[in-house]
Structures are given as structure tokens and as C-alpha cells.
Amino acid sequence: MLTFSSHIAVPMFYAMMMMVGFFFGGTITVFPSLVGDYFGLKNHSQNYAMIYQGFGFGSLAGALVLSLAGGNLAVVFYTYIVLLIVSLIIWLTIKTPKYVESK
């Protein structure tokens, strides 16, 4: 909605940004369990740290793209749409790694 609407009412903009914030916070809360299920618990802390750093770099990249685009939010949103499509393709093709649980 934010990407494809050129004129949007202020309350609707705030509502959409609140949705972005809720999704942003919701994904970070499930990362530890997803990392444990996917990679196993042997090196959970190291694996989670790498995932969490990628999350932070993605946040910084959005600000960088916004500054390079001269404050044009549409450029950021279109960039995110492309990255979401790439991540969907990765998600559809990724295979669970084989790991051995330590006893």
C-alpha cells in the first residue's frame, strides 16, 4: 500500500507504519527458535548471532538506500519488493542442512 499509493491520508500512513513495526518486531522474536530448529542447538548462539547481524545490516541498508535516493521512499519500497522476491525464491529452494546433535 505504501509503495503504490501516491497520495495517502496521514492516519492511514501511521496505521501502515505501525503494521510495519509490528511485523518487524514479530519476526525477530521467532528467529531464535527457527535457528534452533533449522541448524540444531550445538552452535545455536553463533548461528543466531549471524542471523541477527544480517537483520541489523538490513535495517542499516534501508537507511542507506533512502539517503542515496534523496529521501524518495518509493525507491526504498521498490528495492524491498525486489529483495522480498529474492528471499522468497531462496526460501522455496533452500534445503535443511544435515546436522548431528551432540549428546
Can you characterise this structure?
α1 runs antiparallel to α2. Helix content is 74%, strand content 0%. The protein has one domain (10-93). It is mostly helical.
**How would you describe the shape?**
elongated
Total count of helical runs of at least 4 residues? 3
Task: Give the oligomeric state of the chains in this entry, treating copies of one chain as homo and distinct chains as hetero.
Answer: single chain
The major beta sheet can be summarized as: none
Poorly predicted runs are none
Averaging pLDDT over every residue, what do you get? Answer: 82
Quickly give the structural class. Answer: mainly alpha
β-sheet strand percentage? under 5%
Topology:
Elements: H1 10-39, H2 44-68, H3 73-93
Helix pairs in contact: 1-2
Summary tags:
single chain, 103 residues, mainly alpha, 3 helices, 74% helix, 0% strand
Tell me briefly what this model is:
The protein has three helices and no strands.
